[in-house]
Structures are given as structure tokens and as C-alpha cells.
Amino acid sequence: MKILIIGRWGKTHALAKALAKSRDAELYSFMDRNNSGIAELSAGYRIGDITDIPAIEKYVQEEGIEMILVVPEMSLQQEVTTYFNNKGIPSIGPSEFCARLETDKGFTRKLMKENNIDGSPGFKVFFDKREAVYFIRNYPGPVAVKPAGVTSGDGVKVMGIQLADKDDAVAYAEEIFDKAIGGIPSVIIEEKIEGEEYTIQMLSDGKTVLTMPAVRDYKLLEEGDAGLNTPGMGSCSYPDHLLPFLSRENFDKSVEMVEKILDVLREKHGEKYKGFLSGQYMLTRDGIKLVEINVRPGDSEILNITPILKTDFLEICKALAEERLDEIEPEFENKATVCKYVVPEGFPTPSGHFKLKIDHDCLNKTGAHLFQSCFEVQENVFEPSPRLFALTGVGDCLESAYDQCEKAISCIKGDKIFHRKDIGTPELASQYEKYKLLPDEEL
Questions:
Q1: Torsion of CA 201, 274, 262, 124, to 10 degrees
Q2: pLDDT confidence bin for 442, thresholds 50/70/90
């Protein structure tokens, strides 16, 4: 089967690798920048605007593409999947309406409230800057400030972490309006919630939802989980596919929360959600809270999952497109994973080019998995987007996965690059296990 993948980042590279392992897949790619890792896996590729439907259609016709996997949210927002599904070419990814779960965070919060779906923190959506400022000034506690639109994972700022006080919160809310951060003239003010964060990635064909192992993502820039918010510095998963603080009961409750949202889309709006989605959650003393939904695989979380996926990924994609996911039961190895990003100086907003040397013989000996998020502008010179490379180690326990990941990172040499060495260590993991001591009925 000729399958086209649209996207350019590390998550696209991970899915491309998963497809390339299938004996029945002939992979093609459409990117707006040349990710050489994706290009090397492809029988052919085209560089162009990933929201330009006529350009994509021309390439689809030239190559006789039989199925399309759309990864980036900006392509989904432009109805790429709807267009090709209507043309009779199965396309994996939600419609523009369903994509609003990520592209308009106010839409998701209102949908949950109006349909009595538990899991939202206290929130209010503002379209007027003065009203938002007044609300923050008079709110009795600390807040989180969110652009309503898409910000590539680093738009949320929380008092006590990225925002020192209410003056900082007010200034950031004003900046969101003044600079149109997220592309929507709206800001969401939420109560600050505290607890343990986790991600559960899912697949939906409009009727059936399949889940993947839970992952713990680390977004803060500095070791010890401090500093600026970023699109992500790395993540880890455990052999039992849960997390030290996450019980099977709470895993199931988390998934049920998203399933109820998808039911509302189907039953009240006539929209079947077909594609990947990621639930970002926090386990708090007041229960499970849904921080946000992404209408795509997580980056870096999918980089933890594809290396341990045993089921043919093309068969999963075909079942999703044909609305028969109920016939599929994906198998994952009972292994731990540790994924870390090698990022450039200035991350999360780096500039310029970075010279790197990757010793592929060294890397292959470690057994780790390399995922590319950057663009090679000339030999050994890369432009970040905004990260460079991710390395995922796999092992029987977290410690062995950590060791493999660190050995793999040592195979990349370059100036002005760094990674978080603490991700995957028992010391860091132990800081986040306090919530496992709470019985489920007390949450």
C-alpha cells in the first residue's frame, strides 16, 4: 500500500519509522522542510506547504497514494483529512471541527462544562483584555494563564513556576492579546492545580477508542524540573504500561473522560473523531484533571511508544480508516522507555545553525532509537525546529532504559547543545510518587 505521511517533526519521524517496518507499506512523505530522517525512509517525498491541499493533491495523484496519515495540527485545521476522505482516499486525522479540541482550548472547556463531564479545573474564557486583567487581579488564588489557540506546547504559564506573581500573570495575559499568541484573540484563566502529570495517547475510529501505555512527560527546561516551559525535554514509561503513581483504575477513569468528549462530538454534533489524540492529565488531591487534549500523537510521548509497539502499524492504520478498531488489540512490549531531547542553546527559542557529529556506529551499538526533529542544511550542520534529536532507550526496567539512552546521547557531539540528564533517574521519579500513597477513594 502506498501511504503518504504529512509532517516534519520528531513525532512524524517516529510514525514514519513504524510504518516503514511494515512489509506491506510503501512510504511517501510531504513536508514543508526537509527532515532528512523522514526523507531517508521514503520511496519519494515532496517539499511544500503542508496546508496547501491542491499541492498535496497533485503529489497524491502523481504517486498513486492509497492512504494518508496527517500528523500536524495546522494541516488538520485546514480540513486536509476531510478533503481527501471525500475524494475516496482514506485519510487518518480528525476533521477541522474535531481538531478544535486542541486548536481552541476554550471550546474543549465549554464542551465539558455544558455536558457535565468531570475533570476541568475552575476556568473562565476571555475575549476582552480588560476583563481578563480584572479577573486575575480579583481572583482569590494563583492562576494558570493559557492562550486559547495552538502554541506548540510552551504557551501555558503558571503562577509560582513561570509567573512570579499576579503582576506577571496580568502582563502575560496582556501579551497574549497584544501579540495574538495562539492565533485566537482569547485567553483562558484557570485555577492553579497541583499534582502529578501524565499522558495517555489514544486512537479512535469514531466508534472504538484504543489506548497506549501511559507516559510521564517533562516540559520544564532545567534539571530538577525547573525553569522555562518548553515543548518538552523528554519522557519515560514503565514496563507495566502504567506509572508509579497511576493505578489501573485511574488510568481507566482518565480514558473514560476523553471517551465522553468524543461521544458528545458524535451524538450532538454529528462528528466522528478518527485519528490520534493525547490526553494530558494531572492527578490531584481533588481528583483527575484534564489539562488539555492534543489532536495528534504527543511529542515526545509517541517516541516512547513506537519502539515498543509489536503490532503492525499499517494494519492499525487500515483498521482505523475502515472503522474496525474493535478488531485490533495492539500489543506493546513490557519494557521501560526513557526518551530525551538533545536541544540547542537558547531553547525553547533558539536561533541559527548548530554543528553536530553523529557517530552512527556508536549509536547502533547502543540499541537506542534516534528520532530527528531538525533540518540538515549542510553536512553535519542542522537547523533546530526548535529541538534537534531525540534518543529513546528501551530496557527491562527504567534504570536500564536510562543507561541506554545516555549512552546513545554520548554518540552525538557538538557545541552549544544539552539535554536533561535527570529524566529517567530514580531520584527524579521519587519526587512525583507522593500521589500513589492516596487511596483512589480519597482522590
A1: 70
A2: very low
* Confidence at residue 434, expressed as pLDDT on a 0 to 100 scale: 55
Cα gap 294→278, rounded to integer Å: 5
**Cα–Cα distance for residue pair 133/345, rounded to 1 Å:** 34
Reference 24, options 314, 309, 306, 311; nearest CA is 314
Measured at the alpha carbon of residue 89, what is the angle toward residues 314 and 93, in degrees to the nearest 5? 65
Alpha-carbon torsion, ordered 315, 316, 318, 321, to 10 deg: 180
Round to whole Å and give the CA distance between 67 and 15.
14
**pTM, full prediction:** 0.93
The confidence band for 438, taking pLDDT boundaries of 50, 70 and 90, is very low
Task: Enter the C-alpha cell of residue 287.
Answer: 481528583
321/291 Cα distance (integer angstroms):
28
Instruction: Count CB atoms within 10 A of the CB of residue 99.
Output: 27
**Amino acid of residue 204:** S
Helix (H, G, I), strand (E, B) or coil at 254: helix
- CB 130, CB 123: distance < 8 Å: no
Structure confidence by residue, pLDDT tens digits, 406-430: 999 999 999 899 999 999 998 887 7
